[in-house]
Amino acid sequence: MLKTVKDETVRSILKKAAKKEYELYLLYKNAEKCVKDAHIKTILKRFAREELEHEQAIKNFNIDGLKKQKIEINEASQQEILQYLTGKSLSDYSDLEDMLIFVTKLEKKAFEFYSNLSKCIENPDLKKLFIWLAQEESRHREDIEDLFWDVAY
For residue 75, what are the domain limits? Predict the structure, then answer.
């Protein structure tokens, strides 16, 4: 059974998603300031730049024809999507390892968020955007997990 996310239009979901991408950008920029290793700094700079690219892609999406469209999702996906949109915000981290663990979880939630939305969308251009973002977040999670093992060990 499909349910409509209460009061969530494509515009409001994209606005919140762009905000989440910007929060991840800030997180990576702050983490970059905390590390001395040049290789890790380079990786964190790349992550930050890519999050800004995601934010810009979301902001640049033309939704003029979709203004009143609501996104319908199944009940199981609804909780994941709403949790991502309203989940934890940035806070201070005790160290880089803690931040990387936290970001890995955020990237996983972002992947699930975009993946679930891509399954609920009929518009081919919006579907492509969500699929691309899901793939990007999945790649980020894998890269962060690799970075975590480099930092931790």
Answer: 2-152
